[in-house]
Specification:
The protein has 76 residues and is an alpha+beta fold. It has one domain. It is 13% helix and 26% strand. The chain contains 1 helix and 5 strands; from the N terminus they run βββββα. It has one helix at 63-72, and strands at 18-22, 32-34, 42-44, 46-50, 56-59. A hairpin with a 5-residue loop joins strand 4 and strand 5. The longest helix has 10 residues, at 63-72. The N and C termini lie far apart (35 Å). The structure holds zinc ion. Zinc ion binds next to loops.
Length: 76
């Protein structure tokens, strides 16, 4: 049984031809999600790009960050 891996499909077109990259690095901050006050309160997101249609998704894979979001963010 594999853990931490599952087949991801594009939410838009259903293609499985995706590429993902975690923490692109650099200083652009495009894939940093602010969690709260302060510049250090950010979490890096995995960005996944669909090669088929170009759709981009950001995913938070940090359990700590998700716990913090669930505590401090509002429900929509
Ligand atoms: Zn797609």
């Amino acid at each position: 049984m594999e853990t931490g891996y599952h087949v991801v499909k594009c939410a838009k077109c259903g293609s499985e031809d995706l590429r993902t990259k975690r923490e692109n690095g650099g200083t652009y901050g495009m894939n940093k999600l602010p969690l709260g006050k302060g510049k250090t309160s950010t979490v890096a997101m995995d960005s996944t790009v669909c090669i088929s249609c170009g759709n981009v998704e950001f995913t938070v894979s940090s359990d700590k960050a998700l716990a913090r979001i669930s505590e401090t963010w509002d429900r929509p």
